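Aggregate trends can hide what the representation actually does to any particular protein. This step matters because it turns folding into a mapping between discrete strings. For completeness, the protein is quoted in full, as a sequence line and a line of structure tokens:
=====
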Amino acid sequence: MKKRVLFAASLVTCAGFASAQNFGSFTGVTSISGITITPGLGTTPFTLSLLPGASLVYLGNSYAISQVFGIFALRAGGSLTATSGSAPANWDFGTHNNANGSIAGWDANANGNRFNIGDSGVFSFGTLNTADVTGIGLHVQFAGSMPLGQTAYVSGPFATPEPCTLAVLSIGAMLGLRRRKRA
């Protein structure tokens, strides 16, 4: 009987850690590229886009990102008060505050409406004090494996593409959407 109770408690504990969404869940990375948030997280509305070649640098190595299924405003060491305005279908809004920090944002992990390469979506906070935001966090899946696993909550500086590169990527995304609408 003791073994069954211990096994069940272990499963519940592991499940809790696997879906953890709190400030401590996010791993800092050196840089994130190929993911744009325009005009910016604190601006309502904003567009999250996953571009071809998306990657991040962690411990000196580059890892390809294949999907994004969470975006969060982060605040180190304090409370973050936010409400949801709107988001793509099946992206769930949530907040979590603790002594280490706070998060507020959306996750599509449980319902499979993840962004693949070339996808984008519009989000808006109902309320958010942008002065309280100290970072941006993402829940991503990798094209291969990395030390953090197949998926991870990450935060770090976003590499800003130069204007010409951004224009070429935007044209490519528009052509892709045009093709998708015809099909």
Summary: DSSP finds two helices and eleven strands in the chain. The CA atoms of residues 20 and 164 lie 39 Å apart. The longest helix spans residues 163-182.
